[in-house]
Design a protein that fits this description.
The chain is of the alpha/beta class. The protein is built from 21 helices and 32 strands. It is 32% helix and 24% strand. The two termini are 37 Å apart. The structure holds adenosine-5'-monophosphate-propyl ester.
């Protein structure tokens, strides 16, 4: 495959040598007989879904959810790429996550075990959580929020985050969560784009034992005229002083605390918008990914049950993702509760107060299903297996991975040290590596733990009812043993319904690269068995610790600094975080290169513009940037420099001395 894809100079096909190593992987781990015998789904599910995909999803929708009005048509795909699932159906997401479990007699089952970073804990049963959500729904309505209004959510990982999301869903308001690690500026642009009426936030949270603030960012984000926000509800979490805007700001305890616990949920149309979640694309402006109700809940619930082999009466499930990302939406706020599961929610970092915190939590709550990201696993590997060995991890029976490719070494460590309780368990827990995206809404590729013989490093097979393929540049399916681009051939229930306020961008971004196929932006390979290996993004999106960031977004943050004339950003391979941000900047003629000072200042500037997660690890001041004759920056060459490789083919550069100039300046 050529390096440059026609029609897009930015898009790079996966590198050849990445394929070579993978072909050597021949370890297989079949499910134990006992696991397979008790598994909630069996191999028959694939054939059933293949025989009639819409019928399969219609069955899941009716089995897993309670509809206030049944749907009359499973899928309307008459106007692609705009899909309608479960047409005519009406459903309330919060009722499905809460009330119906209480009505079914499970009100005393624990919904959430919350563990705060300082060690405080709270437990919510399904009955209690239902009551809190009803109060929040009443409180938001009393602040003038009605169906279709947007609510921005800027909260830490505390139960109020889940309560807020479900309260919005209950009244048909559309939530737009902004990750607490994003800056005031990022929050402002998201609030403005969605024209939010209400913001729900907290005074702050705790990070590594110290209070960390959130409310000041909301105040900054609302410091300009012309915004649409009428009220701000503030959860008191860390007790720090906050500025108060009388009339606009309300303490959660006063509004939600005082509201009535009576609230009747009404059904909303299956295609009623549930939420917007902004994610990075290839341009500087994040996209508001829009999800709707019926299909999103169906696929979330089905995958959560099937991929984690969920037994809701006995399992304790813990997904470590923050509610600010899609994983925290689908697999913390929605699917586990829809499925009536008991889950753990943890506020803080893995190393607070010490590096064994997670494993103490697993032991304390007897976590049986753990879902986390490869970056965390690699960090634990670095810290050493003696740390988890201090805790009893024997309760773990399924391990999930998400967000980035998991290298076979990390996979094996996860299996043996965590899933095998440090070698004390005869049969280690199966690992399910789950590939999906903000846009897909729910898991798309993953093994089924009671069916699939798993393979270290591969996400393997599309889930039942999902049509994933790997194609070449012309959109033809590649044979086994070959790499190409990951696409989705058929609509799926949890698919994004569009980009908030920009239907053209939706078509252009995902549906124009290959005819009638969704283009995911990932490179992938099919091995000799036909199993899928994810090889990372082929566009200008980076993946830092499983967090999605765009090169263009960081470049525009850098050039907004008065000292910077031009900037180019690449994601360079990093042992722990998968990729790390490396920036090349040209300073303005009148800017003085103060060495470390300017680098530090620029790093802080990016942090202020986007958030600490986007801070470049390395900034290199260079005299020129490599560009093609049409003015496109050749990031591939910069990536070679950033990863310490010999620079590749530079013949298409407008000025072929540029790479030598860069090399000379870096030596200096
Ligand atoms: O490149 C893929 C990578 O994460 C991207 C999606 O990022 P985001 O929308 O933030 O959602 C992350 C959580 C679902 C994908 O395009 N990715 C996600 N899961 C995997 C993965 N790469 C390899 N293996 C995975 N299991």
């Amino acid at each position: 495959m050529s390096q440059q894809t026609p029609g897009s100079t930015a898009m790079q096909a996966p590198q050849g040598d990445a394929f070579e190593n993978l072909s050597q992987e021949n370890r297989r781990f079949a499910p134990s007989a006992e696991f397979a015998a008790n598994a909630v789904v069996t191999a028959g599910e694939y054939a059933e879904a293949d025989a009639d995909r819409p019928a399969f999803w219609a069955k899941q929708a009716r089995e897993l959810l309670s509809w206030s009005k049944d749907f009359t048509q499973t899928l309307d795909w008459s106007n692609p790429p705009f899909a309608k699932w479960f047409v005519g159906g009406e459903i309330n997401a919060a009722y499905n996550a809460l009330d119906r479990h209480v009505e079914a007699g499970h009100g005393d089952r624990v919904a959430i075990y919350f563990e705060g970073e300082p060690g405080d804990t709270r437990t919510y049963t399904y009955a209690q959580l239902t009551e809190e959500v009803k109060k929040a729904a009443n409180a938001f309505e009393s602040l003038g929020v009605t169906k279709g209004d947007r609510v921005a959510v800027y909260l830490p990982m505390i139960p109020e985050a889940v309560i807020t999301l479900l309260a919005c869903a209950r009244i048909g308001a559309i939530h737009s969560v902004v990750f607490g690690g994003f800056s005031a500026e990022a929050l402002r642009s998201r609030i403005d784009d969605a024209e939010a009426k209400l913001v729900v936030t907290a005074d702050g949270t705790y990070r590594r034992g110290k209070p960390s603030a959130l409310k000041p960012a909301v105040d900054d984000a609302l410091a300009h005229d012309g915004h649409t926000v009428q009220n701000v509800v503030v959860v008191k979490r860390n007790g720090q002083d906050v500025d108060w805007h009388e009339g606009r700001d309300h303490w959660w305890a006063d509004t939600v605390g005082a509201a009535s616990a009576e609230h009747t949920a009404v059904g909303h149309d299956a295609e009623h918008p549930l939420f917007i979640l902004y994610t990075s694309g290839t341009t500087g402006k994040p996209k508001g990914i829009l999800h709707t109700t019926g299909g999103y809940l169906t696929q979330g619930a089905y995958t959560h049950k099937a991929v984690f082999d969920l037994h809701p009466e006995t399992d304790v499930y813990w997904c470590t993702a923050d509610v600010g990302w899609i994983t925290g939406h689908s697999y913390v706020a929605y699917a586990p509760l829809i499925n009536g599961a008991t889950q753990v929610m943890y506020e803080g970092t893995p190393d607070s107060p010490h590096q064994g915190r997670w494993w103490e939590i697993v032991e304390k709550y007897k976590v049986s299903i753990l879902y986390t990201a490869p970056t965390a696993i690699r960090t634990f590997m670095k810290w050493g297996k003696e740390i988890p060995a201090k805790s009893d991890l024997s309760s773990i029976r399924v391990l999930g991975s998400v967000g980035e490719p998991i290298n076979p070494e990390a996979w094996m460590w996860y299996r043996e040290v965590i899933g095998g309780n440090g070698g004390r368990k005869q049969t280690p827990a199966p690992i399910v590596d789950t590939w999906w995206q903000t846009e897909t809404g729910a898991q798309m590729i993953a093994p089924l733990p009671g069916v699939t013989a798993t393979k270290p490093g591969s996400a393997q097979v599309p889930l039942p009812g999902i049509a994933v393929d790997v194609v070449d540049e012309l959109g033809e399916t590649v044979p086994n043993g070959h790499g190409g681009f990951l696409v989705i051939r058929e609509p799926w229930p949890a698919m994004l319904r569009g980009i908030w306020g920009d239907p053209e961008r939706f078509k252009e971004t995902y549906w124009s690269r290959f005819e009638s196929m969704y283009f995911a932006g990932d490179g992938a390979k099919k091995d000799e068995d036909g199993d899928i290996w994810l090889l990372g993004r082929v566009d200008d999106v980076m993946n830092i610790s499983g967090h999605r960031l765009s090169t263009a977004e960081i470049e525009s943050a850098l050039v907004s600094h008065p000292a910077v004339a031009e900037a180019a950003v690449v994601g360079a391979a990093d042992e722990t975080t998968g990729q790390a941000v490396v920036a090349f900047v040209i300073l303005r003629g009148d800017a003085v290169d103060t060495g470390d000072d300017i680098v530090q200042e620029l790093r802080n500037h990016v942090s202020k513009e986007i958030g600490p997660i986007a801070k470049p690890k390395t900034i290199l001041v260079v005299p020129e940037l490599p560009k093609t004759r049409s003015g496109k920056i050749m990031r591939r060459l910069l990536k070679d420099v950033a990863e310490g490789r010999e620079v590749g083919d530079a013949t298409t550069l407008a000025d072929n001395t540029v790479m030598a100039q860069i090399a000379r300046s870096l030596k200096k």
